[in-house]
Amino acid sequence: MPQTEIIQLDDPGNPTPGDREKLRAAGARIREGALAAFPTETVYGLGGDALNPESSRRIYAAKGRPSDNPLIVHVCSLEAIDRIADTSDPNFAKLADAFWPGPMTLILPKKEIVPRETTGGLETVAVRMPSDPVAALLIGYAGGYIAAPSANLSGRPSPTDAEHVIQDLGGRVELIIDGGENPIGLESTIVDLTVPDPVILRPGYITDKMLAEALGRPVETDRAILDPDSGKAPKAPGMKYRHYAPKGELTIVEGEESAVLAYLREAVQKAHGSGRKVGLIVTAEHAQALKADVLRCIGSRDREDEIAHNLYRILREFDDEQVEVIYSEGFADTGLGQAIMNRLLKAAGHRVVRV
Ligand code: TXA
Ligand code: MG
Fold first, then answer.
1. pLDDT by position in tens, the chain (length 355)
2. Counting ligands in written order, which one lies closest to the CA of residue 158?
3. Mutation test of ligand 1: which of 67, 72, 84, 206 has the most ligand atoms closer than 8 Å to its C-beta?
4. For the chain, which terminus, N or C, has the lower number of CB atoms within 10 Å?
5. How many Å lie between the centroid of ligand 2 and the Cα of residue 305?
């Protein structure tokens, strides 16, 4: 078991010379085969040298993750990508120009240099250029290619604060770089460019509309993600696992406002009747109107960015409070709401009540 060193930075938003020194040292450790958790604009990543098969093997072991689930290779410059992937598809330039650095991952044909351990045996590779300044510096110091899944133990919500990473990976990695809370709070949008028509494999902060505008044509989302009963396996191997799951049983309640409120009140009473600890995830609009053992306001309905930012933290808080049953309001399934509902549905194992 490695001894975990927590690296505190003076200004993660705008790293100081002292911060850069610490990141340079962390990058050198990654080159030597160490694992380092680090902040990005989406969620924390669990990073290792993407071109070192032993580092990728260690990432799977530290996370407790099946090794058929490929990792994302993080870069800090466009030029670096040609060494690891085929970027000749004209859609690549359109999307890279529009959204990088930023919360988007592109699936591309891989080159020989990328070990199969990193891509879970696939001939394609997921590439992302994060905008977070700490991530960008660390990637450069580590040699240009950091393989990183989200820095949670397999099955837990992705970490959106260094505290979550310490809970999950303390004693399992050499370094944890504390960059404070991640601004977005949900993982990147994944777009597959290895098929004739680009397709969204995982919705995120970069929405279908934004992608369509950059590409000059509509973009579909993988059917297996939108409809769990489609009988198809999702094309992003990771999307097939039940992720983000809180320990309590989560149900999403959808319908007309007054009916949802009435259902939630009754559900809380029923849970109490059977002696179970109950939690609610509600919007700011309804926080005053409801009561529960643990009531968490996820943000205003008009601020989907707040809802995205708070979701994983709240799911973890229910675990900390040992809540046994959880109910959540549902959200609009468009724009950023599509990513929010995708993660919430997975956390709920697709348990939805329509009232
Ligand atoms: O925002 C993010 O993307 C974060 C931060 C750390 O960058 N990373 C992240 O990684 O969410 P992870 O490993 O938790 O999720 C990566 C997803 C998985 O569902 C995986 O199956 C899919 O990307 N993926 C990776 N490589 C792929 C490939 N070659 N083809 C299809 N899907 C791929
Ligand atoms: Mg993940």
1. 689 999 999 999 999 999 999 999 999 999 999 999 999 999 999 999 999 999 999 999 999 988 788 999 999 999 999 999 999 999 999 999 999 999 999 999 999 999 999 999 999 999 999 999 999 999 999 999 999 999 999 889 999 999 999 999 999 999 999 999 999 999 999 999 999 999 999 999 999 999 999 999 999 999 887 666 666 777 777 666 566 778 999 999 999 999 999 999 999 999 999 999 999 999 999 999 999 999 999 999 999 999 999 999 999 999 999 999 999 999 988 899 999 999 999 999 999 999 9
2. 2
3. 72
4. N
5. 19
CA-74 nearest atom, ligand 1: 7
| Ligand 1 pocket residue status of 279, Cβ below 6 Å | no
Provide the edge-to-edge strand list for the sheet that holds 249-254. Answer: 294-297, 278-282, 325-329, 249-254, 352-354
Is any atom of ligand 1 closer than 6 Å to the C-beta of 75? no
Q: What is the enclosing helix (H) or strand (E) of 24? A: helix 17-31
Tokens 């990695």 belong to residue: 173
Cα distances from 161 to residues 65, 166, 183, in angstroms, run: 21, 9, 10
Q: How far is 14 from 30, CA to CA, in rounded Å?
A: 22
| 158 CA to centre of ligand 2 in angstroms | 6
> What CA–CA distance (Å, rounded) separates 61 from 81?
27
From 187, 191, 244, 311, the mutation candidate for ligand 1 (largest count of ligand atoms within 8 A of CB) is 187
The closest alpha carbon to 325, from 292, 352, 302, 300, belongs to: 292
Residue 108 forms beta bridges with which residues? 125
Asked whether 198 lines ligand 1 (CB < 6 A), one says: no
Q: Of the bound ligands, which one is closest to the alpha carbon of residue 106?
A: 1
Q: Which atom of ligand 1 is nearest to the CA of 148?
A: 6
In this structure, what DSSP letter does residue 117 have? T
